[in-house]
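EI: anyone free to look at a 141-residue chain?
SC: sure, send it
EI:
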Amino acid sequence: MMGMMLLSDKEQYPDAEILMSVMAESYPSFSALMERITDTEFGLIPEWNYYNDGKAWLCKVVYKKKTVFWLSVWEGYFKIAFYFAGKNCQGITELDIDQRIKREFSSVKPVGKLYPLIVNISQKDQLPDLLKVIQYKKNLR
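SC: here you go
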């Protein structure tokens, strides 16, 4: 899945109206995800910031002081990026999630000392697997 990264205008904060217009068909999945992760069970907090290095707005999603994942908006989908320490990689293989996610993760090269798990989301039916990874990451010590 390629496409252009969106939300590159530093002056334009990505509020719901902006997100709805740029995300188009992936917005319902995004909206459902945000509703779910900010509920009392997950208790996560999305923080939108403009990052000069990537020249785009990214959403850092945190639990207490821990970054659980990063979200970026692309043409036709949004991208979720998790970063795991080596000692926590095994846990991903034990989750009840799509084999493709596990396969891609098992062959990923580390970024520094962290292993990225990247998932492109465009449909609501991808959310259950994503929520399992979010729960796993949130609960890591």
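EI: Residues 36 and 42 are 7 Å apart (CA to CA).
SC: 👍
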